[in-house]
Design a protein that fits this description.
CATH superfamily: Winged helix-like DNA-binding domain superfamily/Winged helix DNA-binding domain
Number of helices: 3
CATH class: Mainly Alpha
Low-confidence stretches: none
CATH architecture: Orthogonal Bundle
Oligomer: single chain
Distance between the termini: 29 Å
Largest sheet: 2 strands, antiparallel
Shape: globular
Strand content: 5-15%
Length: 74
């Protein structure tokens, strides 16, 4: 299992502090928007290759346990 500190983080200098996947500038909200729009996880991963499948799945698990304040649901 991936450490939660290696999944998403937030820094004021990166996208205004929005939660992003570690090592990327891809906001967590992009994943949520893709899935809420009916797109499969594989499409998100194809469009954002800097995010690993492991990160995406771990982020989804985290959001069900600890909702992300800036995350939007369509």
């Amino acid at each position: 299992m991936i450490e939660s500190s290696k999944i998403v983080h937030s820094e004021p200098d990166i996208l205004g502090g929005a939660p992003v996947f570690c090592g990327t500038r891809v906001p967590l909200s992009a994943l949520i928007d893709y899935l809420a729009g009916g797109h499969p996880l594989s499409e998100f991963l194809d469009d954002f290759p800097s995010v690993t499948r492991e990160q995406a799945v771990a982020a989804l698990r985290l959001t069900t346990q600890h909702p992300v304040p800036d995350a939007r649901v369509a």
